[in-house]
Amino acid sequence: MAGRETGARLHAPATLDDTGLSRDLILQIVAKTLYFAGELTGVELANRLAVGFQIVEPVLELLRRDQHCEIAGGSVVGAPSYRYRLTDAGRVRASLFIDQSHYVGPLPVPLVQYTAYMGDLARATAADVTQDAIGKAFSHLVLSRRVLDQLGPAIAARHSLFVYGPPGNGKTVIAQAIRNVLEGNMLIPHAIEVEGQIIRLFDPVNHEPVAGLPVEHALERSQEGDARWVMCRRPLVTVGGELTLDALELGQAGQSGFYRAPLQLLANGGVLVIDDFGRQHATPRDLLNRWIVPLESRVDHLTLQTGQKFEVPFQVFVVFATNLKPADLVDEAFLRRIQYKVLATSPTTAEFVEIFANYCRDRNLTFDRRLAESIVADELRSRGIPLRGCHPRDLIEHALALATYCGQPRALTRELLASACATYFVVDEELEAV
């Protein structure tokens, strides 16, 4: 499932017109590329722009005609093997282009082509979400049937989801696991062109090329596909208290002259997790106001610095995760906009023991059911501490750290876990006595 490509297979552009870009924009990027590189063969230049040489050849001829580019050498094989460089006049011209925009790299994809691809992607992934698919996607988590059956319809609707409940019960992990349900990989363009302006989209921090291939492999021209796009896993973008409203709009990095994509555009086709919702600098009302139209229309509106607005697809599954009471964050009208709500409840004793066992397996530790049950009864219940999904992991890690410190074998004992509880939990009675 995760390895399948989704959406229409994109063919490499055969002509300059097939790129959907103006000749002038391609000329600017060619000139800037030669300016920074100094000297390149025709094939090297085409590879850097992620297109075939037949795309850049007419632009090179135009630069040569204007005496802004010259052939510095090469073999008798032909124009693709010639080495090209800018003349002094060409360098002056290229520097003017750089003053307008520093963008150098693969040719961008026109917005109309990106919109068409995202539409194909949405239609290709409209498959039903079954209980079996949900069970497999969340098999690494210990969740009740109730929670799984609430998640399923929400994911199938591709709408928005509010995951709430006490801290430490895996709300963020649940939200991030939703990507496992989304079938197939997808193509993400290096950059998008809108009215002659360039928006850098592919982000190595938030996008993961399939099979872990280095990004530069995607720059090599292929007859099988358009190398201006990178085949990636479905995006999973997670933000927390650092989120600001500015991060949801187009922005420019310094004086670069090109735009950085907002978070929702980075997450297009995947999942955007708003973690610790309600703890951002922006108010929950302001954040939800920003989402109302896109969540319902599946179209977002962005604005260039010129003031021109344009539409982009909003194929994002937005998950709001919080340990605050939803009614304390927003009013009923806003909650209605987020159609699906899932309460991440605290684990039962049986679920706690199962989580304990799973983490022991992950850490190659021997699991002792009686030991796990005694920790619940003697350490947590006796202190009046409610069970949390994060407790097994945290207590085991504390115990292992203590074992290492004391020079003891790497194994869980009753004494180590009791000491872990003593340093992990806050004792209110002792605070009152101080």
Task: Note the beta-strand portion.
Answer: 15-25%
Query: How many domains, in number, for the residues?
Result: 3
Radius of gyration over C-alpha positions, nearest whole angstrom: 27 Å
- DSSP helix fraction: 40-55%
CATH topology of the largest domain: Rossmann fold
Q: Judging from the principal axes of the Cα atoms, what is the shape? A: elongated
Mean pLDDT across the residues is 87
Q: Give the number of DSSP strands.
A: 17
- Enumerate the strands of the largest sheet in spatial order, edge to edge or round the barrel: 4-7-8-12-11
CATH class of the largest domain: Alpha Beta
Q: What's the CATH H-level homologous superfamily of the largest domain?
A: P-loop containing nucleotide triphosphate hydrolases
Which regions contain 5 or more consecutive residues with pLDDT less than 50? 212-223
Polypeptide structure, described:
- The protein has helices at 23-37, 42-48, 53-65, 88-100, 111-124, 131-137, 145-157, 171-177, 263-266, 284-297, 326-329, 332-337, 349-362, 369-380, 391-406, 414-424, 428-433, and strands at residues 40-41, 69-73, 83-86, 109-110, 160-164, 186-189, 191-194, 197-200, 229-232, 236-239, 251-252, 259-260, 271-274, 299-303, 309-313, 317-322, 340-343.
- With 434 residues, the chain is of the alpha/beta class.
- Strands 4-7-8-12-11 form a five-stranded mixed beta sheet. The chain has a five-stranded parallel beta sheet with strand order 10-13-16-5-17. It has a three-stranded antiparallel beta sheet with strand order 1-3-2.
- A hairpin with a 5-residue loop joins strand 14 and strand 15.
- Helix 2 (42-48) crosses helix 3, helix 14 packs parallel to helix 16 (414-424) and helix 15 crosses helix 16 (414-424).
- The longest helix is centred in the last third of the chain and has 16 residues, at 391-406.
